Amino acid sequence: MKNIKSICSAVRIVYALLVVVPLTGCPGYGDIMVPVETTSVAINNDNVCFFVANQRDYQPIIIAINPRDIPLKAQSFTDRPNLKVSEGRLCIPPSFYRFENGRQYVTDYVLTPNGVDARDKFVARRVVVAFEIADGQAHLLKLNNDEY
Question: Which residue numbers delimit the DUF7480 domain (predicted)?
């Protein structure tokens, strides 16, 4: 009888190792979360500008500017935008995107060294900002959980 209990215990352990571990996966490079940054926003000479901390040689590689609460399928993005981080700011001119007074927006962009797609999550920086344009000024808004 003791032998049967030992065999059952061994079968359970083997089952756990062969079935449960592959289903849950092992931690590795792809499982590491890289935090999303947020920043301040201001209007400067009709440009909407985002502060870039520790600018170094970071440049945008992709940007999404969308009115808040737009459905995910309707959101748009620009790959390799013709924008530059300069003097610690990423500025969006009206020729790139026209922000409307009284509207709320969510801007999501990725910065990489020299704007090169390094495909390395430890080098790329993702920034998400929610804000409203009102009376010629930009006002930060709290991000919703689904906006990160």
Answer: 37-134
Q: In the chain, what are the domain boundaries?
A: 34-147
Give the type of residue at 96: F
Longest dimension (CA), the chain: 85
Q: What is the DSSP string of 87-138?
A: TTEEEE-TTT--PPTT-EEEEEEEEEETT-----TTT-EEEEEEEEEETTEE
Class of domain 34-147: mainly beta
pLDDT tens digits, residue range 3-61?
A: 776 776 766 776 666 665 565 555 555 555 667 899 999 999 999 999 999 988 999 99
* pTM metric for this prediction: 0.75
Q: What are the tens digits of pLDDT across the range 74-92? A: 999 999 999 999 999 999 9
